[in-house]
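Submission sheet (multi-component)
Chains listed below:
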Amino acid sequence: MSADTHPAENTGLLANPPVDGSELIRFDQVTKRFGDNTVLDRLDFSVDSGKHVTLIGPSGSGKTTILRLLMTLTEPDEGTIRVGGELLTHEERNGKLVRAGEKHVREVRKNIGMVFQQFNLFPNMKVLRNITEAPVTVLGLSKDEAEERARELLELVGLTEHLDKYPTQLSGGQQQRVAIARALAMRPQVLLLDEVTSALDPELVVGVLDVLRDIARTTDITMLCVTHEMSFARDISDQVLMFDSGRVIESGPPEKIFSEPEKERTREFLKAVL
Amino acid sequence: MNWDWNVVDDFMPRFWDGVLVTLQALAVGTLIAFALGLVWALAQRSAQAWVRLPVIAVTEFIRNTPLLVQLFFLFYVVPDFGPSMSPLTTGIIGLGLHYSTYTAEVYRAGIEGVPAGQWEAATALSLSRGRTWRAVILPQAIRRVVPPLGNYVVAMLKDSPMIATIGAFDMLGEAQAFSNETFTTEALTVVGVAFIVIAYPASLLIRALERRLVR
Amino acid sequence: MMTSEFFTTWFLPGVWVTVQVTVYAAALGAAIAFGIGLARGSRYWVVRFVAGTYFEIFRGMSALVLMFWMFFALPLFGWQLVPMWAGVSALGLTYGAYGSEIVRGSLAAVTPAQKEAGIALNFTRWQRLRLIELPQAWPEMVPPFNNLLIELLKGTALVSVITVADMTFAGNLLRLGTNETTPVYTLLLVLYFVLAFLITRGMRLLERRAKAGIGQLPAKTGGTNGKPATRGKGLEAEPQTAGGRG
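Outcome: structure written.
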């Protein structure tokens, strides 16, 4: 490791996981309802490893629900979700699908990390411990290892000098960058980004997006991203999925979706947000 | 262990006497607590420091010292320079006085819980002071006040057996006397169960009330 | 008047007994409060049901009646309790029930977003409780626990009724011996008030420390506290609430 390498390369994000472009996430006929409202309607879609995929579409079209399903924060009513070939919320036992126990869910879930719209840092822990706690208690890293990695990640997000502060002492943009470092510290294969700049004051958005661009450019981590920042989506995405009423109505590389969309609905949406 | 239902049967007439005394103490004590508490709460908001400060001091003192010792004080000390009262009367006054310092806090929180904008709006409409209280503040305060007041009535019920220690014949007083005369303990168990039987529906009622009022 | 001999043989030990009963009952009560409070949030309905039943029974129970019962009736079931422990148990059991409501309520008040962040980092249920939910609920618990502790202190006077020689018991003895009722009961009330005041001071300190532990110190530099607020720096800058809405 030479001193002039990019910080992200020091974090070892490149080494783990192996990226072979195979299918990493697969939704099969997934339906999710909240009361009478069908948010996802027999949704099929997949994401290959190493890809950066952005979900766009009007609010309420089910984009965030996809991330929450992957993170097991909510469960599908019908259909199955696989991560790395493994069923997420179910297990096969004697040829039948049954709800998975916590152990199985945690085993599959450890491949996934998430950054929230509202940051959700732990207010009872200082910045450094926000990042080291899960690697130590969940992954079983030693405190020194975890702290070393945390420092590297803080360097990556540009917050080295704040590691001894409580989250409440940071600005929203700083908190969100800590949250990104915290998610990366778990070395997930997939990073879920749920409208990560929506809760920020406009002048703080740039810093957070720059960090994410950096990560997208310098690592092979798979990203699944819900955002209203269209220029950001254009910059980092390999693929853009346009959602409406719980279904993917159009998908393709960003140049195509943003420049010459096929569907009228996509054109209307882009006209409204761009 | 030997449980004797005959003992329970023998106790029952006196048990009902005790229930009556307990409920009587609770009812009158509640009235005193509710009324006196309002007096404290208003006095604590007085603009006159010579009214406000002593009242705050006295209510704080009463609220932070044991009801049991206050009952002893009322029963043994007050007759030295004041009226001599029966155990039951003393007990009722003690309960009411003690809990009035709690209800005062409830009223205070209820009044302060009404947003300042409501006072300002009433002023903007040039409502009189009395009208503001009656038509604007109190109706809003009352829904914050009723559930906690109910909880204190239940708390008072559970503290009411203390009046037995100065010789009143409430549920516990009757049970104690009966047990001493007959060298049995069934009466105590009956009274213990009775408290749960009375308190549980009462607290269910308050929770239902709370759900209706707090919206 | 009160003789100095009486004071040293009854009153001072009585104060000490009151303190002891308060501490023991508070310890028992705290154990019950956390045990039952956590159990009431369990994902197994059996656990919730048992804990809820405990809560309803002991919350509806009069501490004095329970104390009498444990003192007089329990021995017939073959359980002879020393008066002091009958008193401590009765107080701990009833006040623990109230405390469980504080624990349950404060845990329920931790925002769901914090739980979700814990899931996203793959913590187990127990780890989430220990590392995230309890530490965040704790500062919310301290003020109501202070009130409860003062109620408990006041409740300890009841042990005098079952012959435990606490300070109320000493006061009653003194009345019987001297008829000097006014100074005796006045002194007694003042002593309880002082103890309650000390408890409140202590709990305020605890509250400040608890709040500092989650990065919320009162912004003003009161100057009353000898120890400077070590973590308060830069607080005025930007008090962003972490977590925000759910």
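Remark: Chain B has a mean pLDDT of 89.
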